[in-house]
Amino acid sequence: MIALLNCRAATPDDAVPIARLHADSWRRHYRGAYSDAYLDGDVFEDRRSLWAERLGQADDDYFTIVADHGDELVGFAHTVLDADAEQGALLDNLHVRFDLKRHGVGRALMTETAQVLRQRRPSSGLYLWVLKQNTAAQAFYSSIGGVVVGARLGGPFPGGGRAPVLRYGWPDLSALVGLL
Ligand SMILES: CC(C)(COP(=O)(O)OP(=O)(O)OC[C@H]1O[C@@H](n2cnc3c(N)ncnc32)[C@H](O)[C@@H]1OP(=O)(O)O)[C@@H](O)C(=O)NCCC(=O)NCCS
């Protein structure tokens, strides 16, 4: 893992750097699923308003973890509590800055997310949806104990468009909590 990596709760000041990373990551990884018109448009402004709203209000229903490398934000994970009656919390967004992929940032964010989730909802599981075309992310989830627990046609995504998605789950958070 890279040195000087620190995970912490996001604050309203993180809205712009998170939106920048989010827009860049969607453009790089979601083409073919999200519409070209949307990805070629003002994705940053769309994400900036979403993150300003999410982080601008205290809400007990979700939490966002960011990873800093030195003084730069290099990753984030956003989790919605109690999203599913059986599988628990939904990991709604997870992105690592492109040039720092495969340096342990994703694993650190998942570990921190599991630790916070365990404090907030001790008996909750965790699940997420990943694009079927996103085989790199699937390899990442498998490597940290995730298993495929479902599949469906995802979307409509922001800007329209639909594509197959897989559901990954961790019924027990123990494996994630102890990853690092
Ligand atoms: C998917 C993502 C979050 C993973 O984060 P990361 O910081 O790159 O992953 P890590 O370095 O923590 O990887 C941990 C382990 O996962 C596995 N892994 C990660 N990326 C992989 C890849 N591309 N291919 C195969 N295995 C991979 C490896 O076992 C890796 O350990 P190793 O590097 O020691 O072999 C990140 O690559 C990313 O932001 N991707 C683009 C956005 C995205 O797809 N988000 C997920 C949306 S559902």
Description:
The chain has 180 residues and is α+β, with helices and mostly antiparallel strands. It has a single domain (5-177), classed as 3-Layer(aba) Sandwich (Aminopeptidase). Helix content is 34%, strand content 32%. It has helices at residues 15-29, 36-39, 43-56, 105-120, 135-143, 174-177; strands at 5-9, 62-69, 72-84, 88-96, 126-131, 147-154, 163-170. A seven-stranded mixed β-sheet has the order 1-2-3-4-5-7-6, with helices on both faces. Helix 1 crosses helix 3. The model has no long low-confidence stretch (mean pLDDT 95). The chain binds coenzyme A. Coenzyme A binds at residues 25, 29, 94-96, 101-107, 128, 130, 134, 136-137, 139-140, 143.
Task: List the topology elements.
Blueprint: E1 5-9, H1 15-29, H2 36-39, H3 43-56, E2 62-69, E3 72-84, E4 88-96, H4 105-120, E5 126-131, H5 135-143, E6 147-154, E7 163-170, H6 174-177
Parallel strand pairs: 4-5
Antiparallel strand pairs: 1-2, 2-3, 3-4, 5-7, 6-7
Helix pairs in contact: 1-3
The chain binds coenzyme A.
